[in-house]
Amino acid sequence: MAVYQLDDELWFPYPHLGEESGLVAVGGDLSVNRLLLAYSNGFFPWFSYRFSDEPHWYCPMDRYVIFPNEIHISHSMRQLMNQHKYDVTLNKDFEGVINGCSKVDGRNSEDGAWLGPDIITAYTELHRLGYAVSVEVWEKSQSTEKKLVGGLYGVAIRNAFFGESMFSLVPNASKLALIHLAWLLAANGGLFIDCQFETPHLRSMGGCHISYDEYMRILNSQGC
């Protein structure tokens, strides 16, 4: 097991040599080219910006994904959707979503907070270039102004979606965003939603474990 030090060159080490936690490398930068190379090889940055000046790069050998056609919609979620209380949009407020993910429930005040200024700047640039995507959930109201009450964002390349974070200001808003994302991917030949790690929230949505080798086989089954 080893953790590699990255430099200014664009490269990543062989991920099978990383730690059991999935940590493989530290250093480098959060440039667009490095981030795209990372996601194309199953890596993603994850680090506490209060305690580290360098990105930490993870590539777990056990991957948690949702296949778009296998998204699970519970009875209670179907009831919520049938009420038509919320509108769901794509790429209408990336800034609002990434900042919502950063701050909801006091996340940005925690010692382990990872969605800091450098990450926000990097993924906002990815969004400007068409690689980072947001899904927004809006609460309908009597006024002309709708309120952003949830959403998610991630990176879309190679017909796959690499989820980064989600947030809810009302119950189940992030689940609603995830369902609509899965529908969109299913309608357009999407391969999978990379959830990075298992959580009870994602397990309830139909997530499953696959190996890194299977993950890369699927990711590489279609061109860039």
Describe the 3D structure:
By secondary structure, the protein is an alpha+beta fold. 29% of the residues lie in helices and 25% in strands. It is built from seven helices and eleven strands. It has helices at residues 32-40, 75-82, 94-103, 117-128, 173-187, 200-203, 212-219, and strands at residues 4-6, 23-27, 44-45, 56-58, 62-66, 86-90, 132-139, 147-157, 160-168, 193-194, 208-211. The strands form two sheets. A seven-stranded mixed β-sheet has the order 6-7-8-9-10-5-11, sandwiched between helices. A four-stranded mixed β-sheet has the order 1-2-4-3, covered by helices on one side.
Per-chain topology:
Layout: E1 4-6, E2 23-27, H1 32-40, E3 44-45, E4 56-58, E5 62-66, H2 75-82, E6 86-90, H3 94-103, H4 117-128, E7 132-139, E8 147-157, E9 160-168, H5 173-187, E10 193-194, H6 200-203, E11 208-211, H7 212-219
Parallel strand pairs: 1-2, 9-10
Antiparallel strand pairs: 2-4, 3-4, 5-10, 5-11, 6-7, 7-8, 8-9
